[in-house]
Amino acid sequence: MDWNLIETAWNEYKASAKRQWDRLSEQQLAGTKGKREYLASRVREAYSLSKEEAERQVSDWQARQMQKPALSPSR
User: Which of 12, 27, 51, 63 is deepest in the core (most CB within 10 A)?
Assistant: First the structure.
């Protein structure tokens, strides 16, 4: 799945991201505004991960989103 689709419909994907990274607050997730680099940075900080590991986790999560029905962008 193209990250632009996730970013465009971030409000719908936030819940899935919260289930994946429960140490991130709603405020932290909302603050990323769906920006991949910000999400990876918050994951890295919250879980004390290397940059590479945080990127791998975000990539794995992104790949799993492809298996879900497409979400329509927020209005």
Answer: 12
Residue-wise pLDDT tens digits, 6-21 = 999 999 999 999 999 9
Average pLDDT for residues 37-64, to the nearest whole number? Answer: 97
Determine contact, residues 61/68, Cβ cutoff 8 Å. no
List the domain range (segments joined by +) for residue 32: 3-65
- Output the pTM of the full model: 0.85
Residues 22, 35, 68, 55, CA torsion sign: negative
The CATH number linked to 58 is 1.10.1470.10
What's the rounded Cα separation, in Å, for the pair 14 and 29? 7
In a domain, 13, yes or no: yes
Query: Among 14, 16, 23, which residue's Cα sits nearest to residue 47?
Result: 23
